[in-house]
Design a protein that fits this description.
With 244 residues, the protein is mainly alpha-helical. It has a domain of 52 residues. The protein is built from eight helices and two strands. A two-stranded antiparallel sheet has the order 1-2. Helix 2 packs across helix 3 and helix 4 crosses helix 5. The radius of gyration is 23 Å and the shape is flat.
């Protein structure tokens, strides 16, 4: 460690200990002191922990959402958001729970954006609208390319399409395409839907395999559009025969 890093870590350590509460999530604290540069505040220590474990954050965010379930009367509508964004009822103004509750999973958010009331005061943090884990999970769902290294490691660096070793040029792909999720699975109960944006539906494949898969999906979508167009024309012709 350089002299600069040693001085910086000593100052960060002193600042962290000064602001650290008597009760603090142990995994985040252990992670903070394993980093090359120690986070200087408790909140940064928690954020660093979840950013290092995005797949863990994904699992937890979906588990928390399952506790909340979908609000009564809510349904996933494409008009609310483009289908590449995961459905998030608690981010909609009509169903928002307000400060102190996570806008992704709908569960109470406590000190430092933690998802469990370790302090036992049963008081959600009114300054928080996200869990720290849900922030990282949302980033994984919306920008999975930014987590290429973690996803590569999780699947053993083997391409699931070609069966070959993953190359450095490997690309992130959804096993079930998101357009297909909207078309065929949009009635799936929330938050089960979130798995199609999360780790269970993400894979890293070699570019050649990705190109072939995209071409196949393009042909499939074109065929589907043609089928819909033919069916629509047929319905219009049927109506015209019934008109006086």
């Amino acid at each position: 460690m350089s002299d600069w890093a040693a001085i910086r870590n000593a100052r960060a350590d002193a600042r962290l200990k000064k602001s650290l509460p008597s009760i603090f999530p142990a995994p985040a604290l252990v992670h903070a002191y394993k980093r090359a540069l120690t986070p200087p505040t408790p909140r940064l220590a928690i954020d660093s922990y979840w950013h290092t474990h995005p797949l863990r954050a994904d699992r937890l965010a979906r588990a928390l959402a399952s506790r909340s379930g979908a609000p009564e009367g809510w349904s996933w509508r494409l008009a609310d958001a483009e289908f590449r964004l995961p459905p998030a009822p608690y981010r909609e103004e009509k169903y928002a729970l307000g400060r102190g509750f996570c806008c992704v999973c709908g569960q109470p958010a406590f000190r430092f954006g933690w998802h469990v009331d370790l302090w036992g005061d049963e008081k959600p943090n009114k300054n928080a609208a996200w869990h720290a884990c849900c922030v990282v999970a949302w980033k994984l769902w919306t920008t999975p390319r930014d987590h290429l290294r973690v996803l590569r490691k999780a699947q053993g660096r083997k391409c699931p399409v070609t069966g070959k070793r993953l190359l450095k040029s490997g690309e992130v792909d959804h096993r079930t395409p998101l357009y297909q999720v909207w078309r065929e699975k949009r009635d799936t109960p929330w938050p089960t839907l979130l798995a199609f944006w999360g780790a269970p539906n993400l894979q890293v494949i070699n570019r050649e395999g990705h190109l072939e898969k995209c071409q196949q999906e393009t042909r499939e979508r074109a065929t589907w559009r043609q089928t819909i167009a033919i069916a629509t024309i047929g319905c219009d012709e049927d109506r015209s025969t019934l008109e006086p």
